[in-house]
Sequence to fold (378 residues):
Amino acid sequence: MLKIGVDAIDDFFKQIKTNLLIISSPSVDSSSFMQHLLCVSQGEKTYVVNNKTINVVKNNILSLGYGFDNINLVDSYSGVICPTKENINPEDVSRALKGVKDSLLFYDSISTLFNLSEKPFERIKELIKKAKENNCILVTNFINWNFSKEFLNKLISMFDNVVLLNSIESKIFLTSYLEFLKKPLNLRIPFKILKPGGFKVYIPKILVTGPFNAGKTSFVHSASKRAVSVDRLGTTVALDHGIVDYKGFLVDLFGTPGQERFDPLLKMLSSEALGVILVIDSTAPQTFKRAKEMLIKTRKEGLPVVIAANKSNSKNALCSKEILEKLDLKDVDVIPIDVADGETPTRGKPCKLKNVNIVLEALFNKILGDGNVKERRT
Ligand SMILES: Nc1nc2c(ncn2[C@@H]2O[C@H](COP(=O)(O)OP(=O)(O)O)[C@@H](O)[C@H]2O)c(=O)[nH]1
Ligand SMILES: [Mg+2]
Fold:
């Protein structure tokens, strides 16, 4: 079964029963993308490569943090540099696929067929047909060096499933996106390929906001694998920043300071945010007015929000319903969090919290489900 390892988009990959074409812009490393799919998918697996040596593939798989022991690696490249009887020519699809049966079949790449074969479309037809005959799910990649629409449409029409890996320049960085063609999934998912780590849905900014002392710094540190805070005397004076790597998501969390004198920062921080976590102290309803004010200042209309209700096990903590009423909010998830078991909070020091992952997951689902990352394509 084909998988990418991110729950929110695996429904698409799991339903692929025949073939998948990956069209990528030259700035996206589609081989690494394919190798990620190869390594996280389950079952018999074959990787045919016709554009680089097997050693390059092995090293790249290792750099993604995976192993290749249970993968059948087929060298269809050597024939071009060392034409002997044993070596398979890159355009010789039949020989490369010989004996491959009942397997996930990754073919890297059909671009080579356009470079070397006289009849590339015939070779691709052969590849698709052989894969079907031998009960293989075919995944192959094609680098789009600005080919015409007609050409691409012809190619796309040959495959049952197609995804695009594009990158767009925003500011000075390139952001890569995964898009789905042919299926009703109208998603555009930003991603990164980490070495090690593989494919991650990449969310460049989630804001963690809320009143002073609610637990924002504690939240950012508890949720992140790496976090830094700019603070003085135990209170955050600029911001908290943490990198979250959880369930196939890579996220930059930005915690805002709570005091009003830093409010000009809120607007700056909130630009380009894709979601907001509002941390409140469930035992301090007197701070909710301020919490609501911060939410309004950071949240653009329609931005997904989740409330992390901290200190929820304290005896005077308000319940979710009371919190929503007091904040005058509707249809927002309130997720209780609290100090981690065995941890004693110290004044002026952030402490370890539990259940922060439930908050993250709720927000991830909203971001992928509600139409933010999920921009409409036109
Ligand atoms: N009892 C208790 N204390 C907490 C909890 N979360 C945070 N604290 C404490 O509350 C204070 C403020 O936390 P901090 O994360 O710095 O809040 P921030 O001002 O919103 O960044 C610190 O002294 C923490 O140790 C909690 O769930 N329970
Ligand atoms: Mg703080």
Residues 209 and 278 are 5 Å apart (CA to CA). Residues 216-217, 235-236 surround magnesium ion (ligand 2) (CB under 6 Å). The chain has two domains: 7-196, 203-370.
